[in-house]
Amino acid sequence: MMQCHRDQDALIPRPRGNLPRGCAAALVAITIGGVMLLSPERLFGWVAMAILTLTLGPLLHGLCLLAEEMLHHSDTRYRGRAVLSHMLPACGLGGKTLLAASLACLLLYLAGHPLPHKGQSWQLLLLVSVLYTLFKSLGVLGPSEVEVSDICERRKMNVAHGLAWSFYVGYLRLVLPCLEESIAKFRATHQANKDSWGRGSRKLLILVPLDANIAHKLEDEDDNIRFLDNLPNNEIDRAGIRGRVYKHSVYSVLDGHGKAHECVVEYATPLLTLYNMSHESSAGFGEPERREQVLLFFRTLQDILEHSLECRNRYKLILLNDEHENDPHFLSKAILRHLEQQKKEEFCLNPPPHQEMGRPIDNIPLVNGDWHCLEPMSTDPTLMFSLEKPLPLREPVEDTDCFYRES
């Protein structure tokens, strides 16, 4: 089971960290240290000139963007909102950039001109800023793919983020709280399969294939998987639709010994959107982008469900690697691995009860030297109330004199 988790962690990309910022800070420290050793008297002037050059260029480019927005998009994109509060920050003319440029001008004024001739400083500053504006407009200084990806991930702007939230808000949050009740009704009407339902089978197994290629019938993917029946329908009034039907399918999965294991399993349906987008030329969404979005979808959905009280302990996400063409029973093996993992986690945390407690322990099986709970989580938590009136708090008693007399 640990190997399965390691393989899954090796596929899912982690959020990008702050290593680039640390490297940049180290480079700045090394450079400033070198300048202090060579020309300490001109350090502040050069730092001010560098900061002013870096900030004046984006400010000029922001003015170019502002001209486009004010002339052609002020009504359609900003709906007549204030220029200072909405349009200026959108064009990069925010307070941080203006503050940095102002501080650089003040520092340059106090430190004097770092170059031998006064005119050279302003000529170099103006030339670099104008060239920055040109190169930025032409895309030469545009953000790299890594920067764009980082911005989209931090601001939750990827296609995967929207699909994951839509899948949770519009489906999982509605059906998972009712899942246990639906399974109980199903087991009551299917007595023949009652003994094959383990603890892991009472969760919704959500399959997330990396290639986003979803089969509409699981038995078409693996002949060890057989459709059994549907759970009782859940009818919810949703978006003007009275009694909208939500349903889940129960499958019987055969292991290597021919034993059947019943479970509720389905694919993550938003992956169909990613798969269809990758086959539409107008979407500009190829296979590498699709794979990246599937992994981000899995990570985002996992984070959402881990913080959801309505869905806790009612689901299991299964990431399916797409490198299994030679194994016709890959899907059933993946499902059985997770069912076995859930089964092994059903252990009592406390030691078994003693015989003198009056509770028989003959029906508690011993597995690998550990006491195994049949239903460790089946009892709902209860609140205990006391009918006695609360007693007043005791006041502190001065016993200093007594202490000294005894000593």
From TrEMBL:
CDD domains per UniProt: STING_C_metazoan-like (cd22658)
Keyword Endoplasmic reticulum: yes
GO cellular component terms listed in the entry, alphabetical order: autophagosome membrane; endoplasmic reticulum membrane; endoplasmic reticulum-Golgi intermediate compartment membrane; Golgi membrane; perinuclear region of cytoplasm
Keywords carried by this UniProt record: Endoplasmic reticulum, Membrane, Nucleotide-binding, Transmembrane, Transmembrane helix
Main localization, broad class: cytoplasm
Catalytic activity annotation: H(+)(in) = H(+)(out)
Protein known as: Stimulator of interferon genes protein
Origin species: Planiliza haematocheilus
